[in-house]
Amino acid sequence: MKKDTQCVQVGFTPDNGDPRVLPLYQSTTYYYETPEQLAHLFDVPKDGHIYSRISNPTVSALEEKITALEGGVGAMACSSGVSAETLATLTLCTSGDNFLSCAEVYGGTFNLFNITLRKLGIECRFFAPDASEEEISNLIDDKTKFIFAETLANPAMTVVDFDKLSAVCKKFGIVFMVDNTLATPCLVRPFEYGVNIVIHSSTKYLDGHAQAVGGIIVDGGNFNYDQNPRYKDFYTPDESYHGTVYVKEGGAAAYILKARMQYMRDIGAIMSPFNAYVTNLGMETLHLRMKRHSENGLAVAKALSAHKMAEWVKYAGLSTDSNYNTAKKYFNGGFSGMVTFGVKGGKSNAVQFIKNLKLFKQVTHIADVRSCVLHPASTTHRQLSDKELIACGISDNLVRLSCGIEDTEDVVADVINALDKLKA
Ligand code: PLP
What we know:
binds pyridoxal-5'-phosphate; globular; 17 helices; 39% helix; alpha/beta; seven-stranded mixed beta sheet; five-stranded mixed beta sheet
């Protein structure tokens, strides 16, 4: 199946007389006739559902769809994007370990990595997006478990150089993890560029209607954990799960099996069946929406570039953008609906611009069908120091636009009218 067909079809295939549409299995529990049958599932959890903290048929259908779209071997849906990041990290790191992350990441991710995980004894070492292979390699030691970056950084809009980071990961035998939230598999498939684990905040484009908070971890099945001394937990028996050896039990999907059986089991940040149902519904039109989001994003970026009140514009699809050549290498079919720009006149004009908008509504969100806007420095990223804001690529006058799927002329007109009203 092509990607557009996968969006619509994968995850649920009815048997004779079944509902045609994926049912919402709003059940915590699953009935089995004999203790032996249930005991078998505790040994081989892949063979069926035990309890909805571990898995659920509606949630599994969504996991199957995103696995197919990303081209992986398995996925685990979580209660939010940040819980997906937390569980993805814990599956690889314990106290005393470290990992590397590009500094230009979503503010909540930066906080999780820089503060919360550090308190748990897991150290994040940040690098600049333009750091060389050598500079990045210098941060690695034998306790380094993975390298993290966002395909398209929120809100810096920098495109990750997959080739550079993948080369470093391969050199050291380290996992490469990417947050593909803003690109989605409709535009970029990170596993094709050496990535091993993909994360999503499904709250964004995957749901696409601003109705369900969620996160997903996808396992590319393309990393060999067996006998790699960095990942001993993968090839030695897990005493907390009656001696399971994940590389043996899970094969290519060892990572996602370990994530579910250790950390979903113990922490329980699972996506609810209802949110999986809603997210699946959203994903049925993901391919169509990403095309329109991208058309609107490009049109707005071009209009901004020609406006005297826009100091600078960042959109990877603009041929003048510093990310254009990298983006062209990896993106296929558009560059998303996310545009950031600097308003001339500093923070006060950025704030006034937001007040002048009519169609774009100010919400703490991005990537849904309705156009929306935010001033990150005073909202999502306000917990960061001035130095951290610069590291994340955020200035005082930066405005983040998330172009929805409304008519292109209406979307552009709203932005231009709001800029026209500003005093130089
Ligand atoms: N990753 C990116 C790129 C995001 O933009 C966000 C949230 O905005 C997250 C992760 C966190 O996701 P969630 O809000 O679903 O926890």
